[in-house]
Design brief:
- The complex is a heterotrimer of chains A (about 260), B (about 180) and C (about 350).
- Chain A has about 260 residues and is of the alpha/beta class.
- Chain A has a single domain, classed as Rossmann fold, CATH 3.40.50.
- Chain A has nine helices and nine strands.
- The longest helix of chain A has 19 residues.
- In chain A, the strands form two sheets. In chain A, strands 2-1-3-4-8-7-9 form a seven-stranded mixed β-sheet, sandwiched between helices.
- Chain C contains twelve helices and 14 strands.
- With about 350 residues, chain C is of the alpha/beta class.
- Classes of the chains: A alpha/beta (about 260), B alpha/beta (about 180), C alpha/beta (about 350).
- The interface between B and C is medium-sized, with 22 and 20 residues.
- Strand 2 of chain B pairs antiparallel with strand 7 of chain C.
């Protein structure tokens, strides 16, 4: 038996640094860690990816983020980026005004499926058709998360929501809109992709899509769009750890991932 | 002193153009001018009317007037509101080629000008309002013929500049006809 | 120069460099003119796909500190109200034109068609030269108070041509725009926020507190309403038996009708509110002193008459002599706008 020295932390004076288990992985552009979103939510991962891309492309001091209204709006307060808060559905028009007035800015919108595909469908379609040099990010979880999980225009058939308790039924509630597929048809859209953040592989694929979307804007190729499927265990009424698989089996089966259009 | 001119006719007769030409000519002569044009929803055939007020001081009159110093009547359709504004002494020019019916107002100074006929003689029926405008200048002395000539060029849209000469000829034909 | 062209030129002279609109009579010609006049001075005019998008685009441009405007007629403004209300809460300057159909939009303009506890100053020119001045003033007020400002015109204003020379008016030093976004404060730890939910991000327990923000907005609104001197044209009221109140184009007819009545020996005077908000309450109250009756003309079923009653507070009888007057188009010529007809109504209010 060898002597192992007993390690102990002296308690007679204050520690020189705060105790922590691992290094701080918070991206530089997130100033305030707390976002108050639910455990298991996919939106923080998506936001983080957008912020990492902005930092990596070195456009922090040219960037303006336009936020819609949804759970992710919490991030409008957390970012060390200039933020213009828009009304529900209206972010693409506000982004248009910013970009046209200040063409050297890098303008990104963040909207959810309810914000973009329900309330603001015409805004994003017209902005894409105009080929506006802005990047629109759409976080798609198929529910109005902020109100507690209600039907949106992207909710897939069979998906249970608080106002479709037996699941979305085509006869009664119609069919989901595949927004990326719709936008990809427009001449003004230069880059359109659909990613997801339910697995490590999908997160890194999605980050590449976001990078390409920003490059599209920087090179003034036209409108760029990334739809990101995100988990919403609360709004889906499932256990947190089931959400990534639920996303694959339900949302991604209809809103199929991949690059739909690239210049 | 403010002097009024009301032009009335049907869409396509050139009422708004004639009003612009008179207004621009008066501005070029250093007068204060107010012009209000109105027309029905149709581009052709609906009612069209213009009210011009010309003064030496900034115009005080509202856009439409209750009584007018002078009038140009291009057509009998929709003419009643204009007839209601005539007063004794009003100088009235009637397009006698197409105007059917009387101008039954006492004490007015009525002149018949066959504007549409003269315009057809010039080779373009569209210039009838310019014929009337030329006649109006001579009968009222309100604006000089030379000012009208210059105003035509300013008033025609860029895609119609080739018609300037024809319209100037029409102004002169009206001037001659009004002796 | 036609009213629409003159208003557009006045906007450009006032520094407006962004305009977005959607065609609708009688607003359309202003959009046409801005599309023509802005590009040569480096400005942007957007043919928006709807009024919703027009006001959204103008919002974005305004957020960058670019003097911006949008407009429509009352119907289009109804669509824009959600954004106008929120622009006030986001403390953003914007000029909004309402080339209205008749005067049915007085309440929309002065009460605000939108939600929440906000107000927008309203300027109502009676003719083209006044519109040229008031449009420029609207940009100054919008920038000074960081609030939307309305210019309330009509078909007559848009379609009347008058001799007018548009010159930029100097309203003093340009207001501060350090709040405006251009991206440059990103990464500084103090990145700017333009939002109807707060004017700064929550740092050190400051910001993003809705109660705090709405109270600050209320204080700003209060300061704005106190800071803007109400404007009115008052004439012939000192010995008047009947004082007429009318605004905008009808104000010009009322002026002519009152002068004609004076020539007939009828002691008439008039007050023409130029700011509809703040309403020239004191001017109306003073003018009404000694009058037998206050007659209100509006081309609607009676909206401003409420503000006149609030000004007079029962001290003088208030008689409504207006009423909706339209041609078949519903927005063009008003048959009642006739100096003789109005003169008879004013005289009638006395008996």
């Amino acid at each position: 038996m060898t002597d192992v020295p007993v390690r102990f932390v002296p308690t007679d004076k204050a520690p020189t640094r705060a105790a922590r288990m691992v290094d701080d992985f918070t991206p530089a552009l997130i100033e305030v860690g707390e976002h108050h979103l639910c455990p298991g939510c996919g939106e923080p991962i998506a936001m983080r990816s957008v912020l990492e891309v902005i930092a990596e492309l070195d456009v922090v001091q040219r960037s303006i983020a336009v936020f819609g209204i949804g759970c992710y709006t919490a991030f409008s307060n957390n970012l060390d980026l200039e933020v213009c808060q828009a009304l529900h559905g209206r972010a693409p028009s506000v982004a248009t005004g910013i970009k046209r007035a200040k063409p050297n800015t890098v303008v990104v919108t963040v909207q959810g499926d309810g914000d973009m595909v329900n309330e603001g469908l015409q805004e994003v379609l017209h902005t894409a058709a105009r080929g506006e040099s802005v990047t629109c990010i759409m976080l798609n979880n198929g529910v109005f998360g902020e109100t507690g999980g209600h039907l949106t225009a992207t909710t897939v058939l069979g998906q249970r929501t608080k106002n479709t308790l037996d699941g979305r039924d085509a006869e009664q509630h119609g069919y989901p809109i595949l927004i990326s597929n719709l936008i990809a048809q427009l001449e003004g859209a230069a880059y359109v992709a659909r990613g997801a953040v339910n697995t490590a592989g999908n997160v890194s694929r999605t980050k590449r899509m976001i990078t390409r979307a920003f490059e599209t804007q920087l090179e003034r190729r036209g409108f760029s769009f990334v739809e990101i499927l995100t988990m919403c265990p609360t709004g889906w009424f499932i256990e947190t750890e089931e959400a990534p698989a639920y996303l694959d089996d339900n949302l991604a089966a209809v809103h199929v991932g991949g690059v739909l259009k690239d210049w | 002193m403010e002097r009024e001119l009301v032009l009335s006719g049907i869409g396509g007769q050139g009422i708004q153009l004639a009003a612009q030409v008179v207004a621009r000519a008066a501005i070029a002569e250093g007068r204060e001018v107010q012009l209000f044009g109105s027309y029905g929803g149709m581009m052709r055939g609906g009612n069209t009317e213009a009210t011009i007020v010309i003064g030496d001081e900034p115009v005080e009159a509202p856009p439409t007037v209750g009584s007018t110093w002078s009038a140009i009547l291009m057509h009998h359709d929709y003419v009643e509101p204009t007839l209601a504004r005539l007063r004794p002494g009003s100088i009235v020019l009637r397009n006698s080629t197409v105007y059917e019916g009387e101008v039954a107002v006492d004490g007015i100074d009525l002149h018949d000008i066959p504007a549409t006929d003269l315009a057809v003689d010039l080779g373009n029926i569209m210039t009838a309002s310019m014929v009337m405008t030329g006649a109006y200048a001579r009968l009222t002395g309100l604006v000089a013929l030379a000012s009208l000539d210059a105003a035509v060029a300013e008033s025609l849209p860029p895609y119609r500049t080739k018609h300037v000469e024809l319209n100037v000829t029409a102004l002169r034909a009206g001037w001659e006809a009004a002796c | 120069m036609e009213g629409s062209e003159a208003i557009a030129e006045a906007m450009v002279a006032a520094g407006c460099r962004f305009f977005a609109g959607y065609p609708m009579t009688p607003f359309t010609e202003i959009l046409e003119q801005m599309a023509k006049q802005l590009p040569p001075v480096g400005g942007v005019c957007m043919n928006a796909e709807s009024e919703l998008e027009a006001v959204g685009m103008a919002w974005g441009a305004a957020a960058t500190g670019t003097p911006a405007a949008t407009g429509s007629t009352g119907q289009g403004l109804s669509l824009m109200q959600e954004s106008i209300a929120e622009l006030a809460m986001a403390r953003l300057p914007l000029v909004v034109l309402n080339m209205a159909r008749a005067q049915g939009d007085y309440w929309q303009a002065t009460r605000g068609g939108g939600h929440g506890d906000y107000r927008t100053p309203v300027l109502a020119p009676m003719d083209v030269p006044e519109a040229v001045e008031l449009t420029q003033r609207a940009f100054h007020w919008a920038a000074t108070w960081r609030n939307p400002v309305l210019v309330f015109g009509d078909y007559y204003l848009a379609h009347t041509s008058q001799s007018v020379d548009v010159q930029p008016i100097d309203f003093g030093p340009a207001p501060d725009v350090s709040w405006a976004l251009d991206g440059s404060s990103g990464g500084s730890g103090r990145a700017k926020l333009v939002s109807p939910l707060g004017t700064q991000k929550q740092r050190d327990d400051v910001g993003y507190d809705l109660s705090e923000h709405y109270l600050a907005c209320a204080a700003a609104t209060h300061a704005m309403l106190k800071g803007i001197e109400p404007m009115a044209e008052v004439a012939l009221c000192d010995d008047a038996d009947v004082v007429v109140v009318a605004y905008g184009t009808p104000g010009r007819y009322i002026r002519a009708a009152v002068k004609a009545l004076r020539e007939r020996g009828v002691k008439a005077g008039y007050v023409r509110p130029i700011t509809l908000l703040p309403f020239p309450t004191e001017a109306v109250a003073r003018a009404a002193e000694g009058a037998k009756v206050v007659a209100v003309y509006e081309n609607n079923q009676g909206q401003m008459v409420d503000d006149v009653r609030l000004a007079v507070l029962g001290r003088t009888p208030v008689s409504f002599i207006g009423g909706l007057s339209l041609d078949t188009s519903g927005f063009g010529i008003a048959p009642d706008l006739d100096v003789t007809i109005l003169g008879d109504r004013i005289a009638g209010a006395l008996s």
